[in-house]
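Title: Prediction job returns without error message
Component: structure pipeline
Severity: low
Priority: P3
Assignee: unassigned

Description:
Job completed but the reporter wants confirmation the result is attached to the right record. Sequence as submitted:
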Amino acid sequence: MTQAQNFGFGTQIRKSPYFEATVRWGAKGFSVYNHMYIPRDFGDPEQNFWNLINDAILCDVAVERQVDITGPDAARFMQTLTPRDLSKLAVGQCKYVLITNADGGILNDPILLRLEENRYWLSLADSDILLWAQGVAVHSGLDVTIREPDVSPLQLQGPKSGEVMRALFGDGIMDLKYYWLRRVELDGIPLVVSRTGWSSELGYELYLQDSSRGDELWERIMAAGKPHGLKPGHTSSIRRIEGGMLSYHADADITTNPYELGLDRLVNLDGGVDFIGKAALQRIKAAGVSRKQVGLVIEGAPLGGPNTTFWPIHRDGAVIGKVTSAIHSPRLKQNIALAMVAVDHAAIGTRVRVATGQGMFDAAVADRPFYDPKKTLAAA
C-alpha cells in the first residue's frame, strides 16, 4: 500500500498535478479547498515558517483555480465583477481585487491577471466564482467566454526564491516587477510566471498550463532550489497573519463588505464605472460600518496552533466581536490575531478578553499588519 492510499482519498474531490510529488516529499496532511486536496502539513509548522522567511519554500496551490474570461467584451465584463477600477490595468499586469455581490458582500478576493488584451484570469480563493461568473454572463448581453482552463499554480516563496528563479530561467527573470506576469517555458513546459504570492515575502507563482507535466515541474524546481535551501512546504498561517493577509471564509465571507476590512482602496464609486454591488456599497459608505477588522495581541502562553472556531471577544460583560484567525508568532514572540469587532471597541490599545476554549485571556487591539506593514520584502 502506498502512502497516498493511507490517506483514503476518493474521486469526488480532485487531486492536483503535484499530488504524488508532494506525498513523496513528505506531505503528512491535506485539507480541501475549491473542491481539491491541498497539502497542509509537511511537519512542524514553525519550521515551515522559518524555512519560508530564511530561505524558500515550494507550495502546491493548484487549488487556486483560474477563471478564464475571454472575448471582445472581456474587459467590460471583468469590470462588472469587481469594484476596483481596472481602467489602467495593462496587459501583463496583476491586481488584487474583490468580487462583490448585489449587497456589497465579498464573494472572493482573487488575484486578477491580464494575459492579453481580451484575456483575464481570476486566481481564486476558496469559492465557486466560475459558477458566479458564468451566471452573470448569461444575462449580461456581453460577448464573453468563461471557463476553467488547465492551469495549476505553484508558489515559490521566500527571500531566496529569486535565486531559484534565476537558476531556472536565467538572469532575465530578475527584472519581473511586483504584480506583473510573463509567459515562459521551462524544458518545454508552458508556464505563466507572476511576482505574486500568499506569504508577504518575496515570491513567485508558476502557473502550469499542462497538467500532465506537474510531477516533472515540481522535481525540476526542487532540484534547482537545493543549493539555495529550498524546502517543500505549505502556505504559512504564521506569516500570512503577521502580514494581515485575509483567508476567505475565515476573515471575510459573503456577509463581509470591503469597508469593514479597511479595503476602501479596492472600491471605486466615482465616475461612470458600474459593477455588481455599487449601489449597496454607496449606501454602506454613506451610513458607515458597525464593525471593523482589527489586529489583536492575545496574552498568555503560546497558542498551540491556529484557531479552528471563531473565538468570542468580550468587553464590559458583552460579546463585541470574534477572533477570525489566530496564531503564535515565534518571531514576534506573541499570540497575534485578526478579529472583527464593533466599531466602538476598535481603537488601538482597547483592552478586551478572548474566550479561546482553553479559558479567557486578556488581549489588546493592535494595528495590522503586525510585521513589514509596507510590504517592503514582497515588493523588493
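Comment from assignee: result matches the submitted record. The chain has a mean pLDDT of 96.
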